[in-house]
C-alpha cells in the first residue's frame, strides 16, 4: 500500500480482468514481519519515552530530538497491526468496505508522515552534532563550514527551546504536506478510478498499489527531499573525517580526540540507519514510478489476469517494510547516540535484575539480609540517587 496512485493499465472494460496476484511474500511474509515489528517497536519506544521523560531531569537538545523521534516511532508502530491485516486480507476486503477505507484514509498517511518525520529529525541530529563539533574543537585552522552558517544558528542550536521549535516545525511540515495529498488527491483518484468497477472490487488492487498521476509530483518531491537529507548527513560525515585528520596534526587536540570519536561514531550510526532502512526504498521508488507510467501506455491483450507489475509491487512493499523497520531499530540507536540515555537504561536493567534476584531469594526461603548487607544496600541506593541528579 502506498500514499500515491498512478494510472492503471487501460481504462477500457478489459481492465476489469487485470488484478494483482499476491504471492506468499505478501500474504504470509509481510503480515508476519509487521507483527514482529509491532512486538519489538512498541515496547522499545515506550521504554525510550519513559527514560527520556522520567529518568533524565536535565533536558538537552539531543534529548528533545530523540524524544520526538520516539513519539513518531511509537505512532508508526501502532499502524503495523493494520498493515499486517491489510497484506494478509486485502485480497478479501472490498474496496468500499470500512477496513479498506480506514487503511487508505488513516493508516497510509500516518505511516508516511512518521517515516519522513524520522528522516528529518535524524538529519537534524547529525547536522546539529556536526555544528557543535565545529564550534568546540579546533584544528590547525578554523573550519570554513562555520563561516557559511548564520551566527544566530550556531548560537540557537544549543538551546532546548530551539530544539522544540525545530521538532514542531518538522511535524507541521510533514502533516501539512502529506495529509492533503494522501487523503484529498490520492484517495479521491482511487475512488474515481473504482467508481465504475464492481462493488466487489478488492482492496488490494492496481488502483491502490500501482495506480495516479495527481500526486506523482509530490512523490518525486519526497524522494528529492530524502536525497537532500541523505547528502547532508553524508557531507557532515565526510567533513568530520577531514576535521579529525587535521586535528591529529594539531598540538591542541589532547582533550578533543574523544569528542571527535564520539561525534564520528554518531554520524556513522545515523548514516547506516538511513542507508539500510530508507535508501533502498528511495532508490527503487523512482524506478517503480517510471515502470508504472510506461505500463499505463500499454494496452493489455484479452485474457490477461495478473497485472504485469504484480512482482514489482511486492518488491516496493517489501522495501517499504524496511523503511518502517527503523521504528524498531531506533531505540538501539538512542543507546549509542545519547550517553545519559545509555546510562539510565543500563541502570534500569541492573535494577530489574537485582529485583528479580531478590524475589528468587525470598521465594526460596532465604534468610533476611545481615546488618552489613543492609548497610551495603543502603549505600548503593544512596549512590544511585546521587548519580541520578547529574
TrEMBL record:
Keyword Transmembrane helix: yes
Subcellular localization(s) per the UniProt record: Membrane
Span of domain G-protein coupled receptors family 1 profile: 44-334
Molecular function GO terms recorded: G protein-coupled receptor activity
Keyword line: Membrane, Transmembrane, Transmembrane helix
Pfam family, one: 7tm_1
Listed transmembrane segments: 28-52, 64-89, 109-131, 166-187, 216-242, 263-284
Record region (Disordered): 366-390
GO cellular component entries: membrane
Protein name in the entry: G protein-coupled receptor 82
InterPro entries in alphabetical order: GPCR_Rhodpsn, GPCR_Rhodpsn_7TM, GPR82
Domain of life: Eukaryota
Composition bias, Polar residues: 371-390
Amino acid at each position: 500500500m502506498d500514499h500515491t496512485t498512478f494510472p492503471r493499465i487501460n481504462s477500457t472494460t478489459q481492465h476489469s480482468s487485470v488484478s494483482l496476484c499476491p504471492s506468499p511474500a505478501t500474504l504470509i511474509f509481510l503480515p508476519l514481519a509487521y507483527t514482529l515489528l509491532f512486538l519489538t517497536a512498541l515496547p522499545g519506544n515506550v521504554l525510550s519515552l519513559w527514560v527520556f521523560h522520567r529518568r533524565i531531569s536535565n533536558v538537552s537538545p539531543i534529548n528533545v530530538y530523540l524524544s520526538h523521534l520516539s513519539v513518531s516511532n511509537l505512532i508508526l508502530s501502532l499502524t503495523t497491526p493494520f498493515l499486517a491485516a491489510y497484506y494478509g486480507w486485502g485480497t478479501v476486503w472490498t474496496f468500499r468496505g470500512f477496513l479498506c477505507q480506514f487503511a487508505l484514509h488513516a493508516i497510509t498517511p500516518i505511516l508516511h508522515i512518521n517515516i519522513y518525520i524520522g528522516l528529518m529529525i535524524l538529519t537534524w541530529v547529525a547536522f546539529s552534532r556536526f555544528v557543535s563539533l565545529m564550534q568546540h574543537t579546533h584544528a590547525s585552522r578554523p573550519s570554513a563550514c562555520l563561516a557559511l552558517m548564520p551566527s544566530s544558528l550556531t548560537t540557537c542550536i544549543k538551546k532546548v527551546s530551539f530544539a522544540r521549535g525545530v521538532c514542531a516545525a518538522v511535524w507541521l511540515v510533514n502533516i501539512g504536506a502529506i495529509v492533503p495529498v494522501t487523503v484529498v488527491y490520492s484517495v479521491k483518484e482511487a475512488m474515481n478510478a473504482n467508481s465504475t468497477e464492481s462493488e466487489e472490487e478488492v482492496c488490494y488492487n492496481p488502483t491502490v498499489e500501482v495506480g495516479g498521476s495527481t500526486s506523482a509530483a509530490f512523490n518525486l518531491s519526497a524522494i528529492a527531499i530524502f536525497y537532500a537529507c541523505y547528502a547532508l548527513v553524508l557531507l557532515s560525515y565526510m567533513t568530520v573525517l577531514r576535521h579529525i585528520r587535521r586535528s591529529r596534526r594539531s598540538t591542541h587536540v589532547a582533550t578533543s580526540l574523544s569528542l571527535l570519536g564520539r561525534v564520528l561514531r554518531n554520524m556513522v550510526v545515523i548514516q547506516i540507519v538511513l542507508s539500510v532502512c530508507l535508501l533502498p526504498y528511495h532508490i527503487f521508488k523512482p524506478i517503480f514510478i517510471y515502470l508504472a507510467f510506461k505500463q499505463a501506455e500499454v494496452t493489455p491483450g484479452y485474457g490477461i489476469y495478473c497485472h504485469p507489475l504484480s512482482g514489482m509491487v511486492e518488491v516496493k512493499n517489501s522495501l517499504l517494510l524496511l523503511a518502517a523497520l527503523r521504528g524498531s531499530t531506533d531505540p538501539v540507536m538512542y543507546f549509542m547516540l545519547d550517553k545519559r540515555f545509555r546510562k539510565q537504561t543500563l541502570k534500569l536493567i541492573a535494577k530489574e535484575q537485582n529485583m528479580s534476584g531478590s524475589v528468587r531469594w525470598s521465594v526460596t526461603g532465604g534468610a533476611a539480609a545481615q546488618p552489613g548487607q543492609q548497610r551495603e544496600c543502603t549505600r548503593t541506593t544512596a549512590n544511585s540517587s546521587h548519580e541520578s541528579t547529574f
